[in-house]
Automatic annotation (TrEMBL):
UniProt-listed InterPro entries: GyrI-like, GyrI-like_CCH_Lin2189-like, Reg_factor_effector_dom_sf
Domain GyrI-like small molecule binding: residue ranges: 18-201
Originating organism: Clostridium isatidis
Organism lineage string: Bacteria, Bacillati, Bacillota, Clostridia, Eubacteriales
Protein name from the UniProt record: GyrI-like small molecule binding domain-containing protein
Lineage: superkingdom: Bacteria
Amino acid sequence: MKYEWRKQEKNLYLPKQKPEIVTVPRQKFIMIKGQGDPNGEDFAERLKALYPIAYAIRMMPKQGYTPEGYFEYTVYPLEGIWDLTEKGRKLDKLDKNELIYTIMIRQPDFVTEEVFQRALETAKKKKANPLFNEVTFDTMEDGLSVQMMHVGPYDDEAESFAKMKEFIKDNNLEIVTLVHREIYISDARKVAPEKLKTVLRYRVKHK
């Protein structure tokens, strides 16, 4: 039976459209860093470096190699951690050119550095992309967090963040860092902006 994150991990990927508290365990990711407007060409190129590796890992048994502990699964959604440059933080209005990000795709627990390196080599053989060399494999743990599902254009996320900040205050919590995580449940190339589903998440701590 195929492991599907939409069914097995609803609490992390399909929250309600209102803020809630969640504890996120340590997770494995392939990731790449970047800076600038996510609507630009550079961001798109970085995406093209992540997905071939993610699919190379999933398809390994078909290529004649089965990692220890492998199971069939659906590739996880794209995630991003977003921050601003020093200059960007000082501006009154968001300048997307001043965004700093790390985009990533979560990996199942059986994935190791060795499995990642093997998938990286497979991806490189299929199609050259200089950005493959910037992709890394690592673990992250968000821990205690507040999250909600934002439905609508990315540019309207401020409304959801305001609700989350209110909820955090009301529950005697505080934000650890304004660097936040977004999980893209919808494919922006195929879904109308008003229907886009994005999980927004802040790491928090008790006051």
